[in-house]
Description:
Blueprint: E1 7-8, H1 16-30, E2 36-41, H2 42-45, E3 52-59, E4 62-71, E5 74-79, E6 88-93, E7 102-105, E8 110-113
Parallel strand pairs: 2-5
Antiparallel strand pairs: 1-8, 2-6, 3-4, 4-5, 6-7, 7-8
Amino acid sequence: MDTPEDDVVDGAIGDVQRMTDELLARARRRHPGVEFSIAIDQALSLLLPKSADRIYRTINGRLGYYAGHVYDDCLVQAMDHPAEAADIITLVPLDAHDPPCWQGDLRTGRITSL
């Protein structure tokens, strides 16, 4: 049986921004306060708008930043995926003790909490 976290999103097939927005909305609703990064294929990352090139964080009392492609307050980790996984977008919690990853499949529009 499908749950609200494991279902097909209307209009998300092939739409990188729609799928990413839906993944973030569900993950943040289910796990408020948890930070996620976005793991995405290099080619698909070009379709995700860049909202900033730095993400500022205070760590051990010191303000610093991570530089890179930032979308909706998340660092985008663009990498070369194997062909069979190129259409998968994954949200990865930044702390190992945080909740599971979330994946969106652009071929089917399905979101899954892993």
